[in-house]
Amino acid sequence: MNVLKKISGKSLALEGALKIVLIYVMISFMWVFFSDYLVALLIKDSRIATNISILKGWAFIAITSMLLYVLIRRFAVTKRKIEKELFVSEKRWEYALNSAKDGVWDWELNSNKIYFSPQWKEMIGYSDEEFENSFDALIRNLHENDKERVTSEIKKHLNGETEQYLCEYRMQTKSGNYKWILARGKITEYSPEGIPLRMIGTHTDISTRRALEDSIRQSEEKYRLISENTDDVIWVYDIAIGKYTFVSPSVFKLKGFTSEEVMRHGLKESLTEESYNEINKTLPGRMQRFMRGDESEKSKLYEVSQTCKDGSIINTEVVTTLIKGDDGFVKEILGVTRDVSIRKQAEKKLIESEEKYRSIYENSSVAIIIANPNGVIVSANQEAVKLFCMTEEELRNAGYHGIMDDSDLHLEELLSNINLNGNAHGEITFIKKDGSKFWGDISSNMFTDIHGDLFNTLIVRDLTEQKKAVDLLRKSEELYRNIFEYSPVAAVFWDREAHIIFWNKAAEKVFGWVKEEVIGKKFTQFFIPEEDRESVESNVHYLINNIPRETTLNKNNRKDGSNILCEWNNTIIHDENGNAITVISLAKDVTEEKRLESEIRKSQKELHELNEKLEQRVIERTNQLEIANKELEAFSYSVSHDLRAPLRAIDGFSQMAVDDYKDVLDDNGKRILGIIQTSVKKMGHLIDDLLSLSRLGRKAVSISEVNLKPLFESIYIEQIAQYDNLKIDFVISDLPKANVDYNLIKHVIYNLISNAIKFSSKAESPRIEICGYEEGDETVFLVKDNGSGFNMKYVDKLFGVFQRLHSEEEFQGTGVGLAIAQRIIHKHNGRIWAESVQGEGAKFYFALPRVKSD
Amino acid sequence: MVNANEIEILLVEDNPYDMELTLRALKGSLINNIHVARDGEEALEYLLPEGADKENEPKNLPRVILLDLKLPKVDGLEVLRRIRESEKTKLIPVVVLTSSLEEKDVVESYRLGVNSYIVKPVEFDQFIKSVSELGLYWLLLNKPPF
Q1: How far apart are alpha carbons A184 and A769 in whole angstroms?
Q2: Alpha-carbon distance A276 to A313, whole Å?
Q3: Which of A614, A741, A818, B31 could disulfide-pair with B26, CB 3.0 to 4.6 Å?
């Protein structure tokens, strides 16, 4: 409040002082301006004028002093009067604020200075000195979440958007807690331009109110949640006005009406007529008793039927609680309504379900017997009746011991299990009415009926058929066991732990151990060699699942310590879950076999090496041959060239001697030169023939299909022309086609024809026949003459080089022709041969591979 | 001495007896202007003198060359190849006159461009006949390109 006073006093004083000074200045100015002028106008004498001027100064002081006194006094009186009024008003304010315990703030917007009253500060636990008078200090102490709202509210008011600044916010107290504050405020001064200059307002502590509001809100929320989230309907009924004052929303779920609808209705509309009447009858009495102090009447359960929006009727249980008013009369009824229709339905379902299960029980294809824990049969289904050939009544009388074979060793254990915990499973012998026994499977389960009594259900299955199958299986197993037992192959069966479970006769023979020594022991102890034993033993579990399916060759031990080689074949037997349980290992002693094999391999290897050596040798020989061939070639070349030159010289110079010295030479000399020349000629022919023979060896054969008949004919004509007056009966038939090198075969035919002509030329009536035929894979050609023939004794020499069977005088020739013919035919992969009877003619055959007819 | 300008036949032959027989046969046919080379080198020296410039070349080349194949130093096929390689001598008819009946010699000679291939007959009569006919054919009947 000091500030208020100060500010208003200050402005008042300023105003007054200004006024006083203005009046003083005006008077002074007028005095200075007019006094001299007046003196000059009135007084002409300068001396007097000077004196008067001095006096005038004094007069000025006197007059202005008086004036100032009057003015100041007047100002002081006014001020006191205003101050007094102000004081009264402020006091009134102060009192109001103090009694309201509100704090005051006063904010000069231009200077941003703010004044907080001590009460304002006290509200948040600070003394006047402790809290800084600044806007920033206010903001600092605001709750973080409220800062923005506060500044925006202030801004709104400053912008003229709100009539009054009004804001609820939390401020931090000195102790660190927050207090809810209601701030009110208003702009109190504007500049002439309308800019806000000053804002004043109050702080009211509203923490208590807020806390109360919060707790109410929370409590309401809690109850709302409870009532909304339960299927039960919670309601309050006001007796006085006869209406519901609260109905929880869950009523919609129950009846289809909203809370509001139910509240509009009365009690009567909510219930069926019957239920309403009943309530109406009983409720007043109950209330009376309660009001008289019978607390047992306070809460009561009714079963009432209610009508739903859709017209249906539901059964409900309603718990009602009577609540007294202040006056001691029952004011309200608090109720909780629960739908029991569902429970009723469940009960109905239970009955249905029981019927269903009874039907299953009755019609089941397995025998079901129900007994109490004492072993007394209380019920049996149709199948059980059928199985034991007894009526249900007879079964009841028989009891456990009437249907189970006492002599069965498992019976006692089974029954004790049944009686002990109700659950048991086993296979025992049962007895029918006629005393016959059967093997069956029994499983027992204990259950409690709806009355809480214990019963056992016994399910019995006849295993006779199954047992037959088991027997069959056993027989088949025996069969296979026998097969293995007497198999010539060693059979070893072993289980998951590598224990030998089967060991046949052949195994005894192969490995040396007898059955009694090995059964039940690990196979690794026996036929596995020392060096492998450890690794096999540690891998048995792996092996049983991963044993090789293909035949494996292993080194094994015999009892006598010798080593053998065995071929193993393994088969894994799995149980119904697919786990390997047994391995059947079949072993065949292949030691001898392998030894033989390796020997064969060894000898094969040796053979192979020998072959290679031979081949190497062949290659070497071939090379040598090729070299020899080359040499021969070179040789024949030089023969053709170098041998002929001297011959030519011999012949030439002999002739020159004959020509140039015919006068000197006598007849004998001429004869001698003649012999020289004849010999030279013969040698020339020999060389030529030899050359052509050697050339043949090097020439490649190019085969084509040829008809040889024209060739035979043309060569015959050419040859016969060299003889004068020779008449030959030449007969040639149609010839089959032949695969030949045309140029080479020409030489053959030439040789054969010229021989035939030559050797038949001296016959009486020479005849040459040529024919051809196919025989097997060959095409055979025959040149037959009726000439001198030859002695079959020398047939081997016929085709040799330089081999002649006739004298030069008899028939001319070099003895190379047939050798050439043979070489050519061999080059065609054919053969050539001759037959003859001396003096009667000769047959020359040559056969060529047959032409393939496509 | 035989004037080089009148040379009609160059006979390349190493065997003196063959040479004599050949010369006798040719002379019997009145062919006298013959130059004889005793080996391949000599023949090439005569036809394509080494180091000689073009002015000094023999103006009158032989009208025909009779060439034996088996020659010392440079063989006949090589001589033939060189003759056919040289611009100067490539047009001169060359007749191989040899004892060789070898097919590869015949084929190679023709491949190198020989004009004729004659195998010397062993018989003297035939030899005389062949050579004289050969000489007459190439010198009288044949029309040379120059």
Answers
A1: 158
A2: 13
A3: B31
Interface of A with B (CB under 8 A): 637, 640-642, 644-649, 651-656, 677, 680-681, 683-684, 687-688, 691, 695
Note the pLDDT of residue A383.
84
B contacts of A652 (beta carbons < 8 Å): 17, 21, 124, 127
Percent of chain A with pLDDT over 90: 6
* pLDDT tens per residue, range A315-366: 888 888 888 887 878 888 888 888 877 766 777 787 888 788 888 888 777 8
Q: Would B8 be classed as within a structural domain?
A: no
Calpha distance A682→A661 (Å, rounded) = 24
What's the length of chain B? Answer: 146
CB atoms inside a 10 Å sphere around CB A39: 16
Residue in chain B nearest A656 by alpha carbon: B124
Contact A677 B124 (CB under 8 A): yes
* pLDDT the model gives residue A99: 64
Report the greatest alpha carbon distance in chain B. Answer: 45
pLDDT in tens, B88-125: 888 899 999 988 777 788 899 999 999 999 988 888 88
Cα nearest neighbour of A648 on chain B:
B122
Contacts of B24 in chain A (CB under 8 A): 656
Are A584 and A602 in a shared domain? no
Which residue in chain A is spatially nearest to B68 when comparing CA positions? A641
Regarding predicted confidence, which is higher, A726 or A802?
Answer: A726
Chain B positions in Cβ-Cβ contact with residue A689 (cut-off 8 Å): none
Given a cut of 60, whether residue A650 has pLDDT beyond it is yes
User: Burial of A537 by CB count in 10 Å (0-12 exposed, 13-18 middle, 19+ buried)?
Assistant: middle
Instruction: Judge whether residue A482 has pLDDT over 90.
Output: no
Least confident of A508-517, A606-615, B25-34: B25-34
User: By CA distance, what is A657's nearest residue in B?
Assistant: B124
Which residue from A790, A784, A750 is spatially nearest to A766, judged by alpha carbons? A784
DSSP structure string for A758-799: HHHTTSSS-EEEEEEEEETTEEEEEEEE-S----GGGGGGTT
Contact A567, A590 (CB under 8 A): yes
- The yes-or-no verdict on residue B143 having pLDDT over 60 is yes
Write down the residue that tokens 């059928």 correspond to: A386
Confidence of residue A845 (pLDDT cuts 50, 70, 90): very high
Read off the CATH number of the domain in which B107 is found.
Answer: 3.40.50.2300
Confidence of residue A772 (pLDDT cuts 50, 70, 90): very high
Distance CA A813, CA A834 (A): 18
Question: From CA A185, how far away is CA A107, in angstroms rounded?
Answer: 10
| Residue B7 Rama label (left phi>0; alpha psi -120 to 50; beta) | beta
The predicted-structure confidence for A187-232, as pLDDT tens digits, reads as follows 888 888 888 888 888 888 888 888 888 888 888 777 777 777 777 8
Cβ-Cβ pairs closer than 8 A, A with B, add up to 63
CATH of residue A751's domain is 3.30.565.10
Task: Please name the amino acid found at residue A372.
Answer: N
For residues A619 and A486, membership in a common domain is answered with no
CA distances from A156 to A149, A165, B57 (A): 10, 8, 133
The pLDDT, as a whole number, for residue A493 is: 87
User: Residue A468: what pLDDT?
Assistant: 81
Structure tokens at A296: 């047992």
Q: How far is CA A490 from CA A298, A524, B122, in A?
A: 96, 16, 92
Token pair of A836 as six digits: 């003859």
From CA A243, how far away is CA B98, in angstroms rounded?
A: 157
Q: Which of A648, A656, A691 sits opposite B122 (nearest CB)?
A: A648
Which residues span the domain enclosing A250? 230-339
Q: Are residues A709 and A844 in the same domain?
A: yes
Total structural domains within chain A: 7
